[in-house]
Amino acid sequence: GSVPGPTLRVRQGDRVVVTLVNHLPVSTTIHWHGLRLPNAEDGVAGVTQNAVQPGASYTYDFIVKDAGTFWYHSHQDTGNQIPAGLFGALVVEPSEGNVLQALDQTVVMHDMPGGSTLALNGVPGQSHISAAPGENVRLRIINAAPPSMDGGPEAPVLIGAPYRIVALDGHDLAGPGLLGPERIPLGIGQRADLVFTMPAQGSVELVTTQIHGKVDPIEQLIGADSPQASLVIGSGDLPAMPDLTRVPVFDETTYGSNEADPVAAGPFDQTDSVVLGEHPGFRDGGPQLIHTINGSASPNVPPIVVHEGDLVRLHIINQTAEYHPMHLHGHVMSVIAVDGESLRGSPLQLDTVLVGPHETIDVAFRADNPGIWMFHCHVLLHAAFGMDMM
User: Would the pLDDT of 77 be above 90?
Assistant: First the structure.
């Protein structure tokens, strides 16, 4: 009865049983975005299960392996069903101890159903949550907002208190340092956990902006949109709003402590290129800007076949002027390099990697979860236009 759906909060190691009851006039499924679970529970219609028909039900049953911030959403006709409201937050608390922050709040960025107005947790414009001076706060930010054709990420900014980004895509960062206001690029599907202490006086505000599909970083800054939605934490005077066109963009490749990542270090059992392209063509009964992987569009993209236990390197090449948040189901990718430059900050373990215009990113993953798994652009338009593979 709500948009977003209810936040599901569980503990690492829990057995989770969810029954989907479909009262829609169309079929649907649930995908558990970012979770490493058995292939049969992944929720991809036509691949891991049949779509759940109108009036039918289906039960998902799995053990939660990873603590962190995740989300769930329809994986059937996603270009219509996600914007219509079929998504929600999934928080997995650690198996030992508790979340350290007194206020632990999910913040889902999404479009209001039936329009293009951005909302936070179902509220367009400005919303509020209570917090006391000196209280420690954790914001679990989830981007569920479908972008336009350029695929540009949402870029929230926290104003009014220094903060740390302690996790990306549900996985902790090493040695996160204090930050001032920075725009944090999150492609659709990506998540960021921010931790801060409420000031002695006044409130803190999370403000949304966007970054568009432009090649030059300076153009990205100049192209900052005016605020679309905001969340005020606490009470009292609002913090002064900076000139958003001058707020720097967070660089995840240089943030935190540069510790070892055995997955990123190799050696690799195989390396595969994933070339992202597009061209005008005829598809699904009409003219379309076809989006391709290695020159082909889904369902005609040859799969990447690996063996259980392999350490696999993917060399992702974006030949377009668009952003592509590439999501791998059932596994976690370690970022090796961006445009040939190795990380200088914390190891990055992501399930969705944002590949910028004309950017090249190398990632690696341990193929430790047997099955047929999707690897696709999470921009709903791009996926519908063919940028999917197995």
Answer: yes
Q: What is the mean pLDDT of residues 308-318?
A: 98
Six-digit token pair at 195?
């931790």
Across the range 321-335, mean pLDDT stands at 97
Q: Which residue, among 389, 387, 380, has the nearest Cα to 81 in the 3D structure?
A: 380
Amino acid identity for residue 68 in this structure: G
| 380: helix, strand or coil | helix
CA distance 278 to 110: 26
Q: How far apart are CA 237 and CA 335, in angstroms?
A: 40
Average pLDDT over residues 330-358: 97
Cβ pair 48, 42 in contact under 8 A: yes
Q: Are 146 and 116 in contact (CB under 8 A)?
A: no
Q: How far is CA 213 from the centre of its chain?
A: 17
Alpha helices in 139-261 (DSSP H): 217-222
Sheet containing strand 123-129, strands side by side: 157-159, 204-207, 229-233, 123-129, 118-120, 103-111, 136-143, 191-197, 163-168, 171-172
User: CA nearest 143: which of 383, 352, 385, 389?
Assistant: 352
Comparing C-alpha atoms, which of 47, 69, 214 is closest to residue 144? Answer: 69
Tell me what pLDDT residue 227 has: 58
Please determine, for residue 217, whether its predicted confidence score (pLDDT) is greater than 80: no
Burial of 74 (0-12, 13-18, 19+ CB in 10 A): buried
C-alpha distances in angstroms, 280 versus 287, 290, 291, 292, 345?
7, 6, 9, 11, 39
Contacts of 46 (CB under 8 A, 6+ apart): none
